[in-house]
Amino acid sequence: MSKTIFEEFFDFFNNLLVGYSKEDTDDNISALLQSESMMEALSLKLSNSMKRYSQTIDQDIIADKNITIDCGSDRLTSWHLTPRGQKYTWYGKEIPNTACIKYGCCYDVSQTSNIELSAINETKVEDHQELFTDISLEMKNKVSATIGESSQQLEVLDSAINEVKDITITNIKKIMENATQATANIEQNIEITSLSPLRCKNQCGEPATAGYIEQSLNIEIINNNIITDFTKSVTETYIKMVSKTDTEMSNIDMRKIYIFAIFSCLLITVIYILCFVISYLLFSFVAKRPPPNEIITHIMATILIVIVYMFWSVILCIIRAKGKLRTIFCMF
Questions:
Q1: Is the pTM of this model over 0.70?
Q2: How far is it, in rounded angstroms, from Cα 122 to Cα 125?
Q3: Are 115 and 67 in contact (CB under 8 A)?
Q4: What is the DSSP letter of 326?
Q5: Are residues 291 and 195 in the same domain?
């Protein structure tokens, strides 16, 4: 929903007084989309959804089978190789060695038991669409809970998700078909292939690993592949859309800027006049006589408008912080 002319003017006026309000929202959303908490939330949602399309196999049948895991041979892209997980001190300084590459790992080879497999049912286009709906809604709900439902960035994210819908559904179809074929004949030795690079679950500085298999092996790989492909597509599309929006915004309507600048000057003048009148009345009330000259009144008006500016800056800072930790720094 586009802003009214009055909302645009007050955004302009506030930015003129205390600086641009966008801060690092776009970067924050991009980081949130790729965060560990987002991955875990999507994985949990998808695990529950996959129960509709899988059945438990009698594990005695596969107990003596060799299970080979191909952790993915696809080339790692710049998105996969981007260091993630950067941590900061309470005052915003980067903590060294807390960011590292988070894709391209394989499962811990020391895990030799309790590996289970599930039979994956054949799925239809409607099923792939349902899986897409499940993870896309989970992603939007988690982001909206963080940045607010009225944020314009949420509209951009929604557009990005719609943009990648078809390719994501196609990828889900391919991943599900690959998983179905892998367990089609469990009388033979089984090879489970990941179609996408697996996410690393180790902390930076620890040996690289996709962790232990905590659920059925093929369900785990399905979840990992779908979430990785979906997150990658949404993040890259979101960044492109934000860049395009910023480029379009650079085509400034100079006529509107001049009008806003004139009205801003008028508004500041009106506020100063009000401060001047209040200062005059305040001096007259305290001293029981009018100010001896206008200079004193102007000095008082200047002090008053500075106080108003400081209070307005703090209020605007608190509003923009939206209850986050940086709210405590609004007084400094």
A1: no
A2: 10
A3: yes
A4: G
A5: no
